[in-house]
Design brief:
The chain is of the alpha/beta class. The protein has 2 domains: 2-120 and 218-245, Rossmann fold; 126-214, Dihydrodipicolinate Reductase, domain 2 (2-Layer Sandwich). The chain is 33% helix and 25% strand. The chain has 8 helices and 11 strands. It has helices at 12-22, 45-48, 79-89, 103-112, 126-141, 164-175, 218-231, 241-245; strands spanning 2-7, 27-33, 58-59, 70-73, 93-96, 117-120, 147-154, 183-189, 195-202, 207-214, 237-239. It has a 7-stranded parallel beta sheet, sandwiched between helices. A 4-stranded mixed beta sheet has the order 8-7-9-10, covered by helices on one side. A hairpin with a 4-residue loop joins strand 9 and strand 10 (207-214). The longest helix has 16 residues, at 126-141. It is globular and about 60 Å long. 42% of the residues are buried.
């Protein structure tokens, strides 16, 4: 059984992770953490999300956990630096799906990978990993007369724009030996949309579209838990979700 520390436990993804852990005998909730002053601080992590009690309260300063535990971070900007610092201090692996990373967050995660296994991903969906692979392959094949545009839609509570996933798609195109290709990006915040991404390649003669829609947040929960289980067995270093899926 793998012990998990959920960082950002009071948020939407935190709630879905807590629900999933309760129904998965491979994991146990060791600690639930959120920022100081969060409305959930001091409340049972399950009850705060209208779930059955977990016996674990949401705290801003977690105590000791067993070495070999995994910190799973879905916090806000600035949270990952604290989360990965805790992981290093307690010899935990670190998985993060936080997308609005600050420079301090990135620096802290880079340093941590020298002493613990670290995996970050803007999206833990299998479909998005396939989309990234197809985007890179298309960019290598299509001539530069094909412009590229990325359109993403998320719920109105999402802070960062464009999304981390949209930026990852753009990076996949740039890495595919076409840094000079023109790439437009557009972001929309509408209602309760979990996540929609569309990549369009267009020339004067034809249009190609690749789209992905996340129907519910549990798709990200499933991927994050798979990443946590995989990472718990790895040595120190920097990993990507594609490594978990064993895809190029």
């Amino acid at each position: 059984m793998i012990s998990l520390v959920i960082w950002g436990a009071g948020g939407r993804m935190g709630g879905r992770l807590i629900a999933a852990i309760r129904n998965n005998p491979a994991f146990r909730l060791a600690a639930a953490v959120d920022r100081p002053g969060h409305p959930g601080e001091g409340h049972d992590a399950g009850e705060f999300h209208a779930l059955a009690p977990t016996g674990v309260s949401i705290v801003s300063e977690p105590g000791e956990v067993d070495a070999g535990s995994v910190v799973v971070d879905f916090s806000l900007a600035g949270g990952p630096a604290a989360a990965v610092g805790y992981a290093v201090a307690h010899s935990c692996a670190f998985v993060s799906g936080t997308t609005a990373l600050t420079d301090d967050d990135r620096d802290a995660i880079d340093r941590a990978s020298e002493s613990i296994p670290v995996l970050t991903s803007p999206n833990f969906s299998l479909g998005i990993q396939l989309m990234l692979h197809v985007a890179a392959k298309a960019a290598r094949i299509l001539p530069l007369e094909f412009d590229a545009a990325i359109m993403e839609v998320h719920h109105t509570q999402k802070k960062d724009r464009p999304s981390g996933t949209a930026r990852a798609i753009a990076a996949a195109i740039e890495i595919a030996d076409k840094p000079e290709r023109h790439v437009e990006m557009a972001a929309f915040r509408l209602g309760m949309v979990t996540g929609e991404h569309t990549l369009r390649f267009e020339s004067p003669f034809e249009r190609i579209e690749i789209s992905h829609s996340a129907l519910q947040r549990d798709v990200f929960v499933h991927g994050a838990l798979a990443a946590a289980a995989w990472l718990a067995l790895r040595p120190a270093g920097r990993y990507a979700f594609a490594d978990v899926l064993d895809r190029p």
